Protein: DUF4178 domain-containing protein
Organism: Filimonas zeae
Amino acid sequence: MATVNGLYACDSCNATLSFVSKDTQWMACGGCGTVHYRYDGIAPVRKPVKAIRTSNDLIQPGTTGRWHGKAFQVLGRVRYRFEDGLINFWTVMMEDGLVQYLSEGYGLYAMLVKFSPAPAIDLKVFREAGEHTEVDGQKSVLESIARSVGYEAEGEAWDVFGAYFDRKPVFYDFARLNGDYITLATVDTIVAAFEVHSCTFAQLQLQQLNEAVVIPEKIVCNRCKNRIELVSYPYAESYACQCGAKLELEKDGEFRKDGAFGNTRSAIRLGATGVIKGISYTLIGYAVKQDNTQYKSKWREYVLYNRAEGYAWLSEYEGNWIYSREQEVAPVIANMPAIKEFSYKRKTFRLYSRYGYRIVAAEGEFPGKAFGAAFTRCREFIHPPYMWAEEEDSKEQVSYYLGEYIDRKDLEKAFGVQLPKEKEMGMLSPPFIQPRRLVLVTFIAALVLLGVHLLSGRTGTETMVLEKNYGWADAAGKTAPVLVSETFSLPNWRNNVELSTHADVNDSWVGADFELVNAETGEAHGLSQGVEYYHGYEDGESWSEGSTQASDVVSGLPAGKYFLRTQLSQDSTARQQVTEVSVKLKRNVAVDSNFYLLLGLLLIWPVVTYIRVWMADKARWYNSDYSPYTYDE
């Protein structure tokens, strides 16, 4: 991959300039730093472009990696600066010799693959981010307009603008509603189109990184003369001094005071380190933010930094904490003011709040220009414990952040501090159980219970073990003597038996007292049944009540030999006496009543749990103007 495609001499120091790719144009001399530009068929010439001589970035010329199964090597970069921030366009040469860009900055990574022809779209008509349009027939949203104010170079870099290299390009980032992302970079009439493939640091499998110790950028507060070190420079362009001074990077590269903050105190010490979600962070900034609603609510926000993963934020309100990071791939909801909810990756996110905010107190360093006077507009959509936040801090940028609830105790362990306890239900505090999961668990438990019931109730074939016909041999109306059956076996570990009685009663009744007696232990199980049937004719209508048979189930009889003891009685005043009663005993019968009883007991837990979840969710939405609940004030 490292084949030399051109050897030249530096215009300033005569050092050798070795181009690896035939498609690259920029080359910064490794000796003196002079930046050269190579035209087609012409030797490189010196250009008045600043070289990047020192860097704390992990990626460097010579870094290798893999993307979509193909190896690549980093050749160099052009770093574009904007009014608020910067971005690195690293030139990477794939194993097949093709070059493309790896965009990187603030912990966001994406491969940019050039395609042509560029979409036929008039970019000059766009005035602000969030506008909707169509790109190649696909509904799209303009998420950012980035106008470069300058650039620097390092190593060997690819230039897509040719003769217009010395102009400052404008980058338009579009999110298509089908989930694709494209960037259109333009200089005058030249438009370069790129497919944007977002990826993570881990996915790139980068090696040969810059592992040198970070050299902080040193500045001096022009209010208190305090010496300050910025560990995330050049991405950090704002600093709040402990004296209250607001320092922001000016166009000449100097940090100058622009107003002052009041005193504030961070619950976690600046410079503290801790591991969150497997990432080792340094806490570099702390701010108090206030919204512009009628409540003027304030919350605290902590800026975290990792050299590879970039920035993350910890937000705390009333003791509840949220961990969030900016995302390049996000739901496309910009400039949709009426939207109240959306589905993303099979989760429904509902609008919780809409507000503007600004920083009212701060200390430490912050990415970009953080201390603007204007309010940053924000919308928050929640699906506890997750949240999508959309922020617009200018007319040219819409940013998306994925937030997640994080337990206070985990932060205390990570940073070795004591933090304020929760004062109320947080908007992302996880529910005891998700309602859908509750329904699923209940359904599965009911199926398991049904399966156990069917298996236990039918461990064998339903079998008749006793069938007897008893009658009265003596005078009508007297109680029959005690009748004892022959013995029979119940073989199962636990047996369910059904005892049924039939008698041809007519406007009368028959009673039967039974005892199932274990012939080996003498243990008896008593049971009484009554059979009664009455009928007549009254007010022109026939009526009847009762039945000529009755049955009951006895459950849980242990295995053994049994006999049935029976004593019958009947209505002595009946006009028609019963002369015979039929008694039947079956084993291995299903006992549905037990199933329904257990099912009822089983449902107590999900019902109580659902009420708990409902009450907690109602408390969660109490502070929202978009609550689906009503409250008694």
The mean pLDDT is 89. The chain has four domains: 6-199, 217-415, 435-457+594-623, 463-589. The longest strand covers residues 549-570.
